[in-house]
Amino acid sequence: MQYEKDPTVLAGCLQGLSYLAYDSDGKTLEAVKYIIGKARYDDIEIMKAAIDCISSLIKYGNKKTAKEAISTLFLITSGPYTNIIQKYARQKIKNIV
């Protein structure tokens, strides 16, 4: 994924990862964070897919992954993202809690 630049492809990859919700070695969350770091702060398609993936890792991942994923989700709520993205992340947090 590090060489892919098409936002639609990246969002699709993130959606696939969210259905798998598997991260035994931390590399899935690492990839999600990498994509978030490369995405434009207002790229709603990629960020919503990333938030969905993070939410799945929280629900179905091991404790270590879930803890780091929760932290990442909270960072999105206060990061330099559009209000739409921040609200979406907050809603996911509410659904988890």
Can you characterise this structure?
There is one protein chain. The protein is mainly α and about 100 residues long. It has one domain (about 5-95). The protein contains five helices and no strands. Helix 1 runs parallel beside helix 3 (about 45-60), helix 3 (about 45-60) runs parallel beside helix 5 (about 85-95) and helix 4 (about 65-80) packs antiparallel against helix 5 (about 85-95). The longest helix has 17 residues, at about 45-60. It is globular, with a radius of gyration of 12 Å. The mean pLDDT is about 90.
Short description:
This protein is an all-alpha fold and 97 residues long. 75% of the residues lie in helices and 0% in strands.
Order of helices and strands: HHHHH
For the biggest sheet, the summary is: none
Q: In which range does the helix fraction lie? A: over 70%
Count of folded domains: 1
How far apart lie the N and C ends?
A: 31 Å
The count of DSSP E runs of length 2 or more, i.e. the number of strands, is 0
What general form does the structure show? Answer: globular
Residues in β-strands, percent: under 5%
Query: Count of helical segments?
Result: 5
Structural class category: mainly alpha
Radius of gyration: 12 Å
What oligomeric assembly is this protein in?
single chain
Average pLDDT confidence is 90
Uncertain runs with pLDDT below 50, 5 residues or more?
Answer: none
Keywords:
single chain; 97 residues; mainly alpha; 0% strand
Sequence-ordered SSE layout with sheet pairings:
Elements: H1 7-20, H2 27-38, H3 44-60, H4 63-78, H5 83-96
